[in-house]
Amino acid sequence: MELLVASAVGLMTAVGIYLILRLRIFPVIVGLSMISYACNVFIFASGRIVPGLPPILSKTAVAYTDPVPQALVLTAIVISFGMTAVIVMMGLGAFLSAGDDRIDLSEDSEE
Amino acid sequence: MSPALIAALPFLGALLPGLLIRAGRNACATVTGFVTLLALIGLGLHIPAVLRGEVIRTQIDWLPALGLNANFMLDGLGLLFAGLILGIGLLIILYARFYLSPRDPMGQFYTYLMLFQGAMLGIVLSDNILLLLVFWELTSLSSFLLIGYWKHLPEGRQGARMALAVTGAGGLAMIAGMLILGQIAGSYDLSDILQARDAIQASDWYLPALILILLGAFTKSAQFPFHFWLPHAMAAPTPVSAYLHSATMVKAGIFLMARLWPVLAGTPEWFWIVTSAGLITMVLGAVIGLFKDDLKALLAFSTVSHLGLITMLLGFGTKAAAMVAMFHILNHATFKAALFMVAGIVDHEAHTRDIKRLGGLRRLMPVTFTIATLAGLSMAGIPPLNGFLSKEMMLEQAAHTPPGLIGLLATLGALVSVAYSFRLIAHTFLGPQRTDYPHKPHDPGFGLWAAPALLAGLVVAIGLMPMTVAGWLVDAAAGAVTGTAAHAHIAHWHGLANPALWMSLAAIGGGLVLLGLHPTLDRLWTALPRPEAKRIFDGLMEPLAALSRHLTAALHPGMLSRYLWIATATIIIVSYYAFRSGSHLPGARALTEVEPIAAIGWLLLMAASVAVVLCHHQRLLTLILIAVVGLMVSVGFAYLSAPDLALTQISVEVVTVILLLLALNFLPKTTPRESSVPRKVRDLGLAALGGLAVGGLIYALMTRDFAFPSIADYHLANSKTLGGGTNVVNVILVDFRGYDTFGEITVLGIAALLIFALTESLLSPGAANDRLRGWVSDTPDAGDRHPLMMVVATRMMLPIALMVGIYIFLRGHNVPGGGFIAGLVVAIALVMQYMASGFGWTAARQRIDYHGLIGAGVLVAAATGIGSWFAGRPFMTSNYGYFEIWPLEEFELATAALFDLGVFLTVLGAVMLALSSLTRLAVRAGQTVNTEAFDMQSELEAEEP
Asked: MrpA C-terminal/MbhD domain location, by residue (chain B) (predicted)?
């Protein structure tokens, strides 16, 4: 199971890195989302992976998984939505102002 | 009032003028003056204790590990300076009220002034040199704001920049010097450093420290060769000049030399560096001042000259000279502040400060003339005024200090100073009345001349009764500087045998002769080639600016993909370094068994991720694929015992996909293939390395046990007993780490407001707005804009969805759920209405503003936190209890639920504001589908025959 999680994190990171190195805004946004997934799972997995033992206190539970990384990741997920939305808006603004969605300034567009 | 509070008062007061300017200019000035007066009274209460030789201290440990303590002390030296800063500050506030024109933003002015005042007070009251450095830099920054207050004047901006560059560079040198000093003394507290004279002077590092500290002091106090910034700072409004150049800014360097006098002075190095800089500055400043026609420029160079005089006295290194320096600081502040204010009055009334265009104002402005004459004669050193007393004492000290050249040059400086002082009075006020003033001058109102008149009164009072009015203060200050009890003996007559008498007479006589020769000398001076300081300064700055422009252009060419590449590569290289130093084997922790269902999920995630790369040119397809990845991540969370995360991830997934869909509406639907093959290979290589590194790291982490005992056990053990909830993740969020969550919802709210602001700017006139108005959609519209089935379904579902949201919210403390998830669920329910029934229909029924929701959420969370203060507990301490109300079963109420309500409101508001902002763009693009309210009733009626 650890190998599955680690390989998933690795692949999502690699896909994210490849996409943020593209030249248009949309792949970059998607790439950042992929990196967010990878980061969130990474932090979550740093609490070690334990199936079937949610951190909900009960009299019958034998053990619990680590709740602290979960709390960290929960807010991170919501905030990453906020950040994605900001970048989307910036990208959209750049596209609407300049008429193309390249992320680099081209030589001729410099003043 | 503790010294710390005295220093803090102006900073607190700085908030008031900006607010109270709405209540009018008088209210604004009054409240500013009141704060200063309060600090002055607080200072005054300490006078008896300080005169008894006590030192009043406040000690606050700030960063003790760094030696940085917020320690403040008030001794005689601090009293003299703080008294000047606050006393003259109060007069400046009064003067500025009547000086500033209605066009000038007065609230801003007083705020800057109070910031500056606080920074100055901080310098003179600090008992820790690191703290002192902080305030020192603050004076550079706040004086920049004050000097450049008239932003529309290029001279103002340039003068402010020059002052900042020179004093800022000096400040940097001083930081280094102070750090060396602290290292030698073994403490950064002034009280300790002042005891370490022998250790400091014996150290090899004494000379470097001395030079670096003096660089700071000389630049601040405009000593040669750094004197040039001060005249250019005269572009500031006159109240600023009067404040900065009489009592405060330029005296900071002097203060520092006096403060460190016990440990630094007395060596040959100190004597030669400080004395010669002071002496040169004194003579040079006086000579240049004599040939200035602008009243304020004349006064500026006179200030430079007098600062040189004080520096020279401190350089002598004797206790008697240090005492004279203290006395002259006081006298100079009184007459120079008065003269600057007079220059401002003349400028205000005659609309010029050019001496060549003035003259004969004596009868037109008798009050101003009286004030100017008293202060001017004091500056010249004419008995019995206070300037005479300290100048004669200075000449006596100079005469007794070998080599004889010092006495000679000091007399020369005094002589030229007599000449320019008389010139100021004679050429402005005496002589025949003219007919060609730019504006008919007359005396200003009482408000404008009250402050200088008071100062002129002080000039006379100190002059006539020096021991009564000023003797005690000079004693206290000199005692603090020299470290031994001092008793000033200030008198007008020292007998014929005193060399100072003859030097004074020579100065006055020579000065009068010089004034008589002035027209001839002036022509000569104008013809003489002189180095122009500003041109040299600009010549030095220009290559530096060019270098920085060049560097910026090279490092910041606007190629985002290049930055990202460099950043990623750097991270990988640095990680590789760390990688090489560790072990590369997997850990020994027992692995978790793989069930078939987990393997299927993993396969889906991996396939979708690879497909994202392969298909990323088809944007819609990419969106679907990334949603699959997100879904698998949520399922993974659920499988790995994180139900809260699964719920959050899946609801965020929904809103993210909607967000990207809305954005894709405006973006091209495909990404062109424009990367070359080598580039793709390069990026793939980097991506593979990065992925391998991250994957390997987490694998290594997961296969090892915790290196330290986890804090999880604490949370698990106390969640129920302390927080009153069984869902530990939720209790951590709203209780244990509530403060973090509070910060996070604030960030989320700010992000949403940023999106709103971006939308506003896109919708304001400009290229983006034009493009939106002329928008032609490149994809065909759907056949049925509002499928009836979907409309009906979403409307039916709304109440149910809202109830589910409330349910998730309420149960969150004990089972998976809570404010974050509930906020997202309700947002999705509302967004579905937008999607099904259109923007217009939904907007017409939306009664609550999303901005308001965000604000309310943050406020509710903050109020919950503050509420615990009323129970006498620290911020955000939670409480809970169990209640039973018939016919309900026993239930729990916790303050954490109220906090969670804040989270819920913020999340809902932020998500909705972000999505509706995008919709507003669509409306501007002319998508009529969204502007008209869709109503089932009218649709049905239209269909009936």
From this structure: 604-669
